[in-house]
């Protein structure tokens, strides 16, 4: 027997804010920055409502150029955010990050859409956009960790080859931890969502296996491409940028 997800009235949804408000009260009573929590919750609410309306429009659209435009924005923005931890070298590294995330994430996305799911047409937004979001966000995080660790090691005087190996290993720590924890510590979001919509847990597990493989592959390939593109230029990029970063933070 299967059950579809029930409609969630706004009055019932409001009850979910009670634990969050309790945390805000603790922050306020303890003299901490409760305004930041209110700001974060407000942004979360607004952003999710906006993306909900946008996705309704997107899912009803059959225009390839709109889908490609959304994917382009995802890649451009994720490549910029990935370099948030190395602001002084951001301009010099942006092109490398953009190419790495586009190539690493794009290849994995194409394999999943064409080879695994065999979507017809390939640009079905209901599948393509959520999958692309998972792939590019994980690739972004991996490149961000790689850039941050590579810069730190270079500034410590580590040789580029050794620094690259250290940075690559560090960039894979979060996703590798997820591989060990999935199914034991947590049931991931996609699998949970499918189970809530009435899908068989065994079928949901297959889809989650696909997701874990694709995000691990996209993360590793994007990080490796980014680090490979630096080669022996890393000392010049990171050390040269160390000065402006310190002045900006001062």
TrEMBL record:
GO (cellular component) term, any one: plasma membrane
Recorded topology in the membrane: Multi-pass membrane protein
UniProt-annotated location(s): Membrane
Coiled coil: none
Organism of derivation: uncultured Desulfobacteraceae bacterium
Family in the record: Belongs to the UPF0014 family.
Alphabetic keyword roster: Membrane, Transmembrane, Transmembrane helix
UniProt name for this protein: ABC transporter permease
One Pfam family this sequence matches: UPF0014
Lineage of producing organism: Bacteria, Pseudomonadati, Thermodesulfobacteriota, Desulfobacteria, Desulfobacterales
Regions that span the bilayer: 6-28, 40-59, 65-83, 95-115, 127-146, 166-187, 207-230
């Amino acid at each position: 027997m299967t059950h579809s997800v029930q409609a969630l009235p706004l009055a019932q949804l409001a009850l979910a804010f009670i634990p969050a408000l309790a945390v805000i009260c603790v922050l306020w009573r303890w003299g901490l920055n409760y305004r930041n929590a209110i700001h974060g919750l407000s942004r979360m609410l607004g952003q999710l409502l906006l993306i909900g309306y946008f996705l309704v429009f997107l899912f009803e659209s059959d225009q390839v150029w709109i889908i490609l435009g959304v994917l382009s924005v995802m890649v451009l923005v994720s490549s910029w955010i990935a370099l948030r931890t190395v602001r002084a070298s951001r301009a010099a590294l942006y092109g490398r990050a953009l190419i790495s995330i586009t190539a690493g994430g794009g290849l994995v996305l194409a394999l999943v859409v064409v080879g695994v799911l065999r979507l017809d047409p390939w640009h079905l937004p209901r599948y393509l956009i959520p999958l692309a979001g998972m792939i590019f966000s994980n690739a972004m995080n991996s490149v961000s960790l790689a850039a941050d660790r590579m810069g730190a090691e270079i500034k410590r005087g580590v040789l580029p080859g050794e620094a690259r190996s250290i940075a690559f290993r560090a960039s894979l720590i979060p996703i590798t931890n997820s591989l060990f924890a999935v199914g034991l510590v947590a049931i991931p979001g996609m699998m949970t969502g499918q189970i809530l919509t009435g899908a068989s847990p065994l079928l949901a597990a297959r889809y989650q296996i696909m997701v874990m493989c694709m995000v691990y592959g996209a993360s590793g390939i994007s990080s490796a491409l980014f680090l490979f593109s630096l080669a022996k230029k890393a000392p010049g990029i990171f050390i040269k940028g160390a000065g402006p970063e310190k002045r900006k933070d001062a």
